[in-house]
Amino acid sequence: MNNTAKAVFLTVIMVLSLPAMGAAGFAASDGVSSESESDDGPVLSELSEETGEIDEELLRDLGDGPTEAVVRLTEADNEALATGDREQVIGQLKTHASATQGSVIEQAEDLGAPVLNELWITNAILVEIESERQLEALADVVGVERIHPNYEYEIPDVDVEDADIAPDQDYTYGLEQINAPDVWDDFGTKGEGASVAVLDGGYDNDHQDLPEIHPDDQWQEWDGDGNPVESDPRSTSSVDHGVHVSGTIVGADDPDGDVPGFGVAPEATLYNGLVLPGGQGTFVQVAAGMEWSIDNWGVDIINMSLGGGPGDDALLPAAEHIWQAGSILVASNGNNQVGAPGTYWSSFGSQAVDENENPASFADEEFIDDPDSFFNTEVPDHWPDEYQTPHASAAGVGVLSAQDGDGYDTLSGTSMSA
Questions:
Q1: Pairing between strand 152-154 and 219-222?
Q2: CA distances from 27 to 32, 123, 187 (A)
Q3: Angle CA(257)–CA(258)–CA(260) in degrees, nearest 5?
Q4: Within a 13 Å sphere around the CA of 123, how many CA atoms are in the beta-carbon half?
Q5: What sign for the dihedral angle of Cα 299, 190, 21, 316?
């Protein structure tokens, strides 16, 4: 195993095996009144008293009729969270959201603006707006920092190629490249005890080389407002993107089909969230899936592939809170340009290489020498002053995995590397 592969593998093992860090409690930092109280409990940050910024795109959207708006409130102060203690961090985030969102909800109701959802993974409320007057009134509520559209995210484009498999090939080149078979033997595990949530475009629960997941426990779908939808596991994207990505994670090491083993952790427990139906979904849809992953099931790893812009900060608080709760957000880092959430320091961004370990033609990298400017927001204090993205690269060119309907295909894209 080369040094890079060793470092990546040992980093993941170390993170997953870390004991819960000592509860940090509600520690105050400069300018933070972390023990102040509201009717709903402690507030973990001083709330902004400045008028919230209104995204101009919302004003344009109002010209076509009522539109959905995401009201973002002051986030919990990172230093006040019990980093590493999943249960306590989630409880703190929920308490902070409950304590700070009441005034916005009350104002929205008074304005006749329906509240469609409330989030805690990031401190936000989804409302339906029909006038600029409503937007301005909500922006004036203490604690509101900005109001933006319910952004849409899409599965990145991938290339479909014919499989080129040697007849005596036991494993895909991607598994061999990271020495997965050797790791299985050396450590006596193929992922048993680890849990992964794939938030993507769906799943094939009948594929012979994928594990069957329980439709009530290990599967969930959400609508564009982030509300749960009752459904059974199914693939919805044109290239079965979610099926393929799931296969590279938990696909069989000894497949029934005439193909080599292709899953890096075939004994891991898989959860699958449909947040990008038909290949696209909303900000609130994705955030709801992130909440479900760490709150309902406390997964070790969340896998996401979606096309956020390089400096898109919309999901930054949610990604940061996943890290603080002790999970790892693994995100593809964009095709032809780097993209969020893979560009966040608190995520594990992945790029693609080919069979010869050369960067893919669509691979990109970025040296972020001023994170605050790059994301146009104040990033957490624990982030470095500068860093390189992606964090690592893996097989992403001509990667074989499962497809809906008992089939297989080779796809190319950074999604395959994550």
A1: unpaired
A2: 9, 19, 39
A3: 95
A4: 28
A5: negative
Q: pLDDT tens digits for the chain (418 residues)? A: 333 333 333 334 333 333 332 233 222 233 334 345 655 557 678 888 899 999 999 999 999 999 999 999 999 998 899 999 999 999 999 999 999 999 999 999 999 999 999 999 999 999 999 999 999 999 999 999 999 999 999 998 888 876 666 667 899 999 999 999 999 999 999 999 999 999 999 999 999 999 999 999 999 999 999 999 999 999 998 789 999 999 999 999 999 988 999 999 999 999 999 999 999 999 999 999 999 999 999 999 999 998 788 999 999 999 999 999 999 999 998 888 899 999 999 999 999 999 999 999 999 999 999 999 999 999 999 999 999 999 999 999 999 999 999 999 999 999 999 8
Assess contact for 333 and 349: CB atoms under 8 A. yes
Instruction: Please state, in angstroms and as integers, the Cα–Cα distance from residue 97 to each residue in 28, 33, 394, following that order.
Output: 18, 16, 38
Task: Name the nearest CA neighbour of 401 among 198, 233, 193.
Answer: 198
First-to-last CA distance in the chain?
Answer: 19
SS3 202: strand
> Distance of alpha carbon 345 from its chain centroid, rounded?
13
pTM for this structure?
A: 0.90
